[in-house]
């Protein structure tokens, strides 16, 4: 069986979903850190489609005064949705972000593709945050905290186009969660999303809950979208993120997740989000994220070269 993929790199320099500038440099950092070469070294073909540009849209009326950059985020959502749907038909898209509001668009496009093929879509959310606010409930106004609520079809997104084929809550798995606002918590109680917070992972380990989720995907021949936020990782190993939360995944845990995903053969699309190179230490976080993609795409732990950060 040929396990080599056609990997389609799509830059999404989205910086509008939060207030700390720098995520727009993410796509360039992934390219400099050697993402394409890493994939080619593993035998995959690589097509870099460059960076997406947001559509120019008028700002809609929004009842929540905290929300900022709404028109820009809607423009990104429209452009990335089309780019994602187009790329899904051609290979395995990897969206190089950019803050996590990009998933409003990437998952929408993937969901349209999944609906067109008649296969169910599953989402693995590797993140410190649940991102389950709506436009109405966010108090920060940062739209990078809203994608999962949009994806699941939660009310409160009247200013957005309706999400195409909302993903059933039971098809979503949050992994590594350790920061949830009260309004998000209240919303999550009404949805059957698998929430594997760090307490669950401390008690059960990485393998059992992830294997259970992957078994569900496999059983129904599902498509699997993985959304990897830098803050899934512990800030001690991945400092280049504006939303650091202590107690994240270790180097070994993160690579174990990626190797399990590779062995499953189920991943069909990938977000790489919230890398802020302005906050990095000599490209350390960008290189770690590229290494994780390497593990996701087939590199074993004993293949990894010794590296100095000096």
Which tags fit this structure?
single chain; 310 residues; alpha/beta; Arginase, Chain A; 8-stranded parallel β-sheet; 8 strands; 35% helix
- List the total number of helices: 10
Largest sheet, in brief, is: 8 strands, parallel
As for the number of domains, it is 1
Structural class from helices and strands?
Answer: alpha/beta
- Measured by DSSP, the beta-strand proportion falls in 15-25%
Q: Examine the secondary-structure arrangement and name the CATH architecture.
A: 3-Layer(aba) Sandwich
Number of DSSP-assigned strands: 8
Q: How much helix, percentage-wise, in residues?
A: 25-40%
Oligomer: single chain
Rg: 18 Å
Strand order of the largest sheet: 2-1-3-8-7-4-5-6
Tell me the overall shape: globular
Order of helices and strands: EHHEHEHEHEHEHHEHEH
**Average pLDDT, all residues:** 96
Do you know the CATH topology?
Arginase, Chain A
End-to-end distance, in Å?
A: 41 Å
What does this structure look like?
It is built from 10 helices and 8 strands. With 310 residues, it is α/β, with parallel strands linked by helices. It has a single domain, classed as Ureohydrolase domain (Arginase, Chain A, 3-Layer(aba) Sandwich). It has an 8-stranded parallel sheet with strand order 2-1-3-8-7-4-5-6, with helices on both faces. The longest helix has 19 residues. The chain starts with 5 loop residues before the first strand and ends in a 14-residue tail after the last helix. 52% of the residues are buried.
